[in-house]
Specification:
53 residues, mainly alpha, globular, PMP3, transmembrane helix, YqaE/Pmp3 family membrane protein, transmembrane
């Protein structure tokens, strides 16, 4: 299941975070990071998916 989330995180980072943690603070942080730059959004999303179990 993590592989699917990582694929979503590369295509659309907030979706990957949403699938992992829902509409929490990490989701909104990822929205902001993705708006500021696509790469920071991807890095944050993959970090959240790898860290939160």
């Amino acid at each position: 299941m993590d592989l699917i989330r990582i694929i979503f995180a590369i295509i659309l980072p907030p979706l990957g975070v949403f699938l992992q943690v829902g509409l929490g603070k990490h989701f909104w942080i990822n929205i902001i990071l993705t708006l500021l730059g696509y790469i920071p959004g991807i890095v944050h999303a993959i970090w959240i998916i790898a860290r939160v179990k």
